[in-house]
Amino acid sequence: MSRQLYTFFRSSTSFRLRIALAYKRLDYEPHYVSLPKMEHRVPSYRDINPQGLVPLLVEGGRSLIQSMAIIEYLDEVYPDPPLMPKDPAGRAYVRAVSQIIGCEIHPLNNVRVLKHLKAQFGADEAATNAWYEHWIAEGLSGLEGYLAREGMSGDFCYGNTVTMADICLVPQIFNARRFNCSLDAYPKLLAITDRCMTLDAFRTTEPSTQADAF
Amino acid sequence: MSRQLYTFFRSSTSFRLRIALAYKRLDYEPHYVSLPKMEHRVPSYRDINPQGLVPLLVEGGRSLIQSMAIIEYLDEVYPDPPLMPKDPAGRAYVRAVSQIIGCEIHPLNNVRVLKHLKAQFGADEAATNAWYEHWIAEGLSGLEGYLAREGMSGDFCYGNTVTMADICLVPQIFNARRFNCSLDAYPKLLAITDRCMTLDAFRTTEPSTQADAF
Fold this sequence. Notes:
Two copies of one chain form a homodimer.
Chain A: E1 3-7, H1 12-23, E2 29-32, H2 43-48, E3 56-59, E4 62-65, H3 67-77, H4 88-109, H5 111-121, H6 125-150, H7 164-178, H8 187-196, H9 200-203
Helix pairs in contact in A: 1-3, 1-7, 4-6, 4-7, 7-8
Keywords (chains A, B): Isomerase
Protein name (chains A, B): Maleylacetoacetate isomerase
GO molecular function (chains A, B): glutathione transferase activity; maleylacetoacetate isomerase activity
């Protein structure tokens, strides 16, 4: 197949891509990259992705990296069904929601960072959990407040249609639940997540459904 | 004036916005938000930006947050001169470069994170500098490798024209220099930075030129 996704079941950025591809009904051949086995750092993988991270989407010989960039690429090349609003203000809002998660929450809490806290500061599990929870609370409270202030959310982050914003939100909520974070303060975000999980594109791609899940 | 930028001179995401506005010759009224004085956390600021971060661009009564989202908004509303390529593959590449910086480097190294390392782990200056340098080396080596692999860079990250990618790169290099990081391993990134700094939009907006600089 000409489209190949390098993915790890628990990687929330890989989960974003799996949702986007399923939502647009785009088939792909999965390549499972085990982060615990450090398969993303071996030379053969770095040859195709010098960053040494997942996900990576290879499409028509082109290597695409960075999940939000890939989602927008897919939306531009396969516009139906859309994942971005048509107007600049709507797009700015959807990108802002996505980036609150993709630039302010996820980067601080992914496995490589938690591992580095252990390596540099000798952080034990309790300490890395506290770190995780701190940035979840900081990030999600800002996001809940942003949705309330902008008044553009409905069933989903942007009105009643799925966008990139929901695709970033749901994997982050999955991740926060895995770390047992209290999410009671974010009723809008939880309602949107619940609504998304009624849709096949989200339900059939979540971590526990994946062939590499353990 | 109807356009207002909430900025801090040393904030690299504020610097991104200053470059983009200058490049597009868009005037604005600056509002200086002192991060050391925690002016971004006071209620009057959080009322207009619940995230409590800079930059914030208020334009025609609309509050815009997240620097990369704002740059794309400006590019869509004021397309000349452009900051994004016309084709989806080019845009995917420019967004990927921007996000390598905006999602993998900057979030781990900004002031609130370094402060939190001190608060949670008692990190002293040497330890926060080591943390900073680790993520600079990790991120910039991946980025230098990505530019080499893709073969799309020229005078700038994307051929010979300024894009959002350069606007994300230059403030990150400024920041890395402030922390005395060795940058010898990234000749492409340094050459692009030098080229950018010959342009007024970059030179007239860098931190030391700002009215709030100290």
